Amino acid sequence: MKVLIVDENKEFTYELQEYFMKKSIEIDILNSYDKILEEYNQVNLHEYDSFIFEIDSENQQGLDILDYMNILEIDKPVIFISQEKSVELLSKAFAMGGEDFISKPFHIKELELRMLKGIRKKISKDEIELPNEYTYIYSEYAVAKHHSYIDMTKKQRQLLYLLITNKNNLVTYSMISDYVYNGKEFSNNAIATHIRDIRKKLPGIPIKAVKGDGYILKV
């Protein structure tokens, strides 16, 4: 699971990062919206499972990002956090499709529970049926057939999760780099090898290569 947090309070975001790392939840931190707003392709919003955006009356850029996500049809839960208890801000956030709104101060455990609830709600159920009688179990990052689990490596599971959560949409090499390789260098041939091995383990799974760009899971 990967989450993007945007909050200008560095001490607070460090505390969040420390907490979620212990929960094996990968966190990316930005202390301003500039990197996203100046050039949207600098931050690949498709790769995240949830978003936590700080907003207040003077800085509502998080709502601009949500508006852009709606244009891109990125249907992932966005939780807004704020120092203000503003009905106007809350109304705007929910009207634009925000998942939740929490006023500071709050316990991080509460934020975690609301975030996980939002992710489960978007998924709507823990399992999804795939072609050829396979079942994907989100909570376990696993694939089963007739109740028997398919053995997969960590990178294979990460790749498949990325493809399934972005099903029918292009998963670019940039997305794979960020999610599977943590931004480190890799070769397209290495990805092709992992995809080939996934296809061998899951015959009939319709993963299509898009030359030079990435892969799409067509379901």
TrEMBL record:
OmpR/PhoB-type domain location is: 125-219
Gene Ontology cellular-component terms for this entry are: cytosol; protein-DNA complex
DNA-binding residues (ranges): 125-219
- Organism equals Sulfurimonas marina
Task: Name the chain's protein.
Answer: Response regulator transcription factor
Alphabetically, which GO biological process terms does the record hold?
A: regulation of DNA-templated transcription
Question: One MF term in GO for this entry?
Answer: transcription cis-regulatory region binding
Checking Pfam families in the record gives: Response_reg (PF00072), Trans_reg_C (PF00486)
- Domain Response regulatory positions: 2-119
Keywords (alphabetical) are: DNA-binding, Phosphoprotein, Transcription, Transcription regulation, Two-component regulatory system
Q: Which CDD domains match?
A: REC, trans_reg_C
